[in-house]
Write a structure and sequence with these properties.
- By secondary structure, this protein is α/β, with parallel strands linked by helices.
- The radius of gyration is 21 Å and the shape is globular.
Length: 422
């Protein structure tokens, strides 16, 4: 077990040249490889710089990089245009689209006794470790798992073995891990590297992935004082130390602890990245611990046109809506379709304020009837953007028409909480 690179700090800004040189130095330490698979995220994680790092790996390995498998999870396959925008001139024929419902196989099963323990007695199911067949059958002599460590609503801190076991996972592994997170409580695990969901994935990785030559390439990304997105750290390794070093840095630079709760938060969702509430609800997850009771979250979402990235999940969200934990658990117990898609149920729980604060969605391509039918408040995008212009607001506290608001340009880059809720 080795740590091949550990570059970074709260004040570091790694340039593209430093990223490239650090990655290539780490790859040199691995020795010659003849059949390499790269597993980066998709365009919803553009800030991770994974596209750039994948390109450097391709330049280094050349024809020995045999495949690129974006860790889509339940997301839609990347279009050629999105691949080009994120990965540059990496050949299109290297890319494989992960189909989470069809392309996986089970490589082992975490026993239900372990799940019962981690869920504090609330769940009584096994957890199948499912991965894309290309990962477990491709006979690669190196699998580069590339991505960003950042606070996350399902896994506490994103990436590491989640990139494999969820990003290339199947229906049962994704459904049951998301549901475990929802039952345990999102606010209890966000920003924490050690939590029940991570322990389940660590169990699966140590028992069932040990025969795979996986090396993790992990970035930590944050805003600097001028508001630019910069790389604070790069960590490359084949064991948990790589992840925990990155998670420690991420907690320092991606977590913002506020002295008081926020009355109104305005979040902007870049239309190039966010097309659904499935993704855009990061606006809710990452700010919920900062919002005061009775406060309001306004989500400016010019690119959002649907609820689920997956057609079946989109239908379930429209049918059942975001109505909180108690209501969702009752619906799961009474409805077979929702019980069969527990990641959708978990998402419905995560996307509710539990009645504690108002959520006003301002989508570019969903109607008032659709938004309100799903349980959210509706705001007209043009009108709200005139009031809260993303081009004029700065990250953090702003005063708009005599009102104090907190503006977040990209919720995927951080986690916000008031001192009394974290």
């Amino acid at each position: 077990m080795s740590l091949y690179c550990a570059q970074g700090g709260p004040d570091r800004e790694l340039s593209s040249r430093e990223l490239r040189d650090s990655l290539l130095a780490a790859l040199e330490k691995l020795g010659k490889r003849s059949k390499v698979l790269a597993i980066p995220p998709d365009q919803t994680r553009t800030a991770s710089r994974a596209g750039e790092l994948t390109r450097y790996a391709w330049e280094y390995y050349g024809e020995n990089l045999h495949a690129v498998l974006p860790a889509l999870g339940t997301h839609k396959a990347m279009s050629p245009e999105r691949i080009a925008a994120m990965f540059g001139d990496v050949p299109r024929n290297l890319f494989h689209a992960h189909n989470w419902r069809e392309d996986t196989e089970t490589v082992g099963v975490v026993p239900k006794e372990f799940i019962r323990e981690q869920s504090e007695g609330k769940l009584e199911y096994e957890w199948p470790a499912q991965v894309n067949r290309l990962v477990c059958r491709g006979q690669f002599d190196l699998i580069l798992s590339i991505g960003q460590v950042v606070p996350h609503e399902v896994i506490g801190m994103a990436n590491y073995n989640k990139n494999i076991l969820v990003g290339t996972g199947g229906p049962d592994s994704i459904n049951r891990s998301h549901y475990l997170a929802a039952v345990y409580g999102m606010e209890r695990l966000m920003g924490r590297a050690d939590n029940p969901v991570r322990r389940v994935l660590n169990y699966a990785a140590s028992h069932f992935l040990g025969n795979l030559p996986i090396v993790y390439v992990l970035t930590v990304v944050a805003r600097n004082a001028s508001g630019a997105t910069v790389v604070r750290g790069l960590f490359v390794g084949d064991d948990a130390e790589c992840f925990y070093r990155a998670a420690e840095l991420s907690f320092q630079v991606n977590f913002e602890l506020l002295p008081k709760p926020i009355r109104k938060v305005v979040v902007y969702l870049d239309p190039r990245e966010f097309h659904s509430t499935w993704l855009g609800n990061k606006a809710i997850y990452r700010t919920r611990m900062a919002l005061e009771d009775g406060g309001e979250l306004i989500v400016l979402a010019p690119g959002v046109r649907e609820f689920g990235e997956d057609a079946k999940i989109d239908k379930l969200i429209r049918k059942y809506g975001y109505h909180g934990t108690e209501a969702t658990l009752a619906m799961v117990s009474k409805n077979a379709d929702l019980a069969a898609d527990l990641s959708a149920a978990a998402h419905l729980i995560h996307g509710s304020s539990e009645g504690r604060f108002r959520i006003t969605w301002c989508p570019g391509h969903l109607t008032r009837e659709e938004v309100e039918g799903a349980g959210f408040g509706y705001g007209e995008l043009g009108q709200e953007t005139q009031t809260y212009d993303p081009e004029k607001l700065q990250h953090g506290w702003n005063r708009v028409a005599g009102e104090e608001i907190f503006f977040i340009e990209n919720p995927g880059l951080g986690l916000w909480a008031s001192q009394d809720r974290f």
